[in-house]
Amino acid sequence: MKLLKPLNLLFLFLMICCTKSKSSSSNNPNHFNINQKSKDCKSTFQFGKVNLCIPQITGMYNIINNPESRDYIQSKNFPGNTFVAYYVNKELYKNLQVLWEDQFDDFFQIYVTNSNENRDVDISYFTEVNKDYLNKYLTSADWETLKKKLENINEHNVFERPVIIESYSLSKNSMQYITLVTIKKENTSKNMIAIGNMFIVKNHLFFSTYNKFYRNPNSIKEAKKKNNELMNRILNVNE
After folding, report:
1. d(C-alpha 208, C-alpha 110), whole Å
2. What separation, in Å, do the N-terminal and C-terminal C-alpha atoms of the chain show?
3. What φ, ψ does residue 200 adopt, rounded to 5°?
4. In which element (H, E) is residue 130 found?
5. Cα–Cα distance between 115 and 193 in angstroms, integer?
6. Chain segment 173-212, per-residue pLDDT in tens
7. Residue by residue, what is the 3-state secondary structure of 40-52?
């Protein structure tokens, strides 16, 4: 199977968003249905033939269509991608005006690549991806191109080359990668854990990322546990 072109943005696209960007892109409001009566779905997102259930998650708040956060979220969107959900914790939810600052710890996004909307995929796609494709990509000259795109969206930040430290699968319809990256800004630097997820719902491909600052060796375990809780919730309501 030929790898879908947007894969090279999978885990690096939204590792950290620190500064206001000049770029802007709007989600298509026709994709969203916020008037759900299901006890599991707070809203749904229409992607091709699939209505992805976007559930309520205990302790997290989906701010994708919140007037206070919408502009910021879309300023961090890669052209050709659309955000499906953007969950933050209670602390950030109570103080959304700091979105333009470096406040991002413990947040989770779901997104799609628009060109995949009418493409069918199956789990054989994961086999192709798992043939060291991501590692090869991150050690190739293509990384410099992506690095420029990341630094254009996240002004004043310098992204070091990420390192993939673990890959695993929560289910036959999903694949997970844990990456570490250092982001430098002026005279400071921060280490970020980004757990990227690919998952298939009714033969359509979705992406998500959970992000957490690295503070100590337990940070990776904590991030993996939180990502798995979030992803299991998403996968279970979309069976």
Report:
1. 4
2. 24
3. -115, 130
4. none
5. 28
6. 999 989 887 777 777 777 889 899 999 999 999 999 999 9
7. CEEEEEEECCEEE
